[in-house]
């Protein structure tokens, strides 16, 4: 299976290519743009996909966008609670969520040849757990544990 993981909604936009369960390439967008953390963690920066990191991962893997099985987007807007329900004052949170809902179309626009239906929303904590589990896959008795402060939902950390 050929999976491109994309993190883009808050800060440190990045991409990783996982081929048959093994990380083949990974990069943060700041390595290409030289902007620390890639974009500012504000709603107006949420539209910035890690386009160069995504393309680099595909180049390293020798793949075209249409060769991907799924693209895993590291946030599920359907699971997000409104910011005021979490005690946060964020008048622009609706804009961030609106962008996330349209991420499949934006991602397909950034990667011509990608079918927007290939983009799958993944709960944010599951994305963290996957990155930890893939990084430590040679250690048999390791299990990632997570604590996130603001994201879509608190999900079990079992990979």
Secondary structure topology:
Layout: E1 2-7, E2 14-19, E3 22-28, H1 30-33, H2 51-61, E4 71-73, H3 93-101, H4 103-110, E5 119-121, H5 124-135
Parallel strand pairs: 1-4, 4-5
Antiparallel strand pairs: 1-2, 2-3
Short description, anyone?
The protein is an alpha/beta fold.
Kindly describe this structure.
This protein is α/β, with parallel strands linked by helices. The chain has a single domain, classed as Nucleotidyltransferase, domain 5 (2-Layer Sandwich), CATH 3.30.420. The chain has 5 helices and 5 strands, in the order βββααβααβα. Strands 3-2-1-4-5 form a 5-stranded mixed β-sheet, with helices on both faces.
User: Total helix count?
Assistant: 5
Q: Name the poorly predicted regions.
A: 154-159
Helical percentage? 25-40%
Overall average pLDDT: 83
- Taking the alpha carbons of the first and last residues, their distance comes to 17 Å
The profile of the biggest β sheet is:
5 strands, mixed
What structural class is derived from the secondary structure elements? alpha/beta
For the biggest β-sheet, the strand order reads 3-2-1-4-5
The CATH fourth-level homologous superfamily: ATPase, nucleotide binding domain
Overall structural domain count: 1
Query: β content, as a range?
Result: 15-25%
Number of strands: 5
> SSE string, helix = H, strand = E?
EEEHHEHHEH
The CATH class, by name, is Alpha Beta
Gross morphology: globular
CATH topology: Nucleotidyltransferase, domain 5
Radius of gyration: 15 Å
CATH architecture: 2-Layer Sandwich
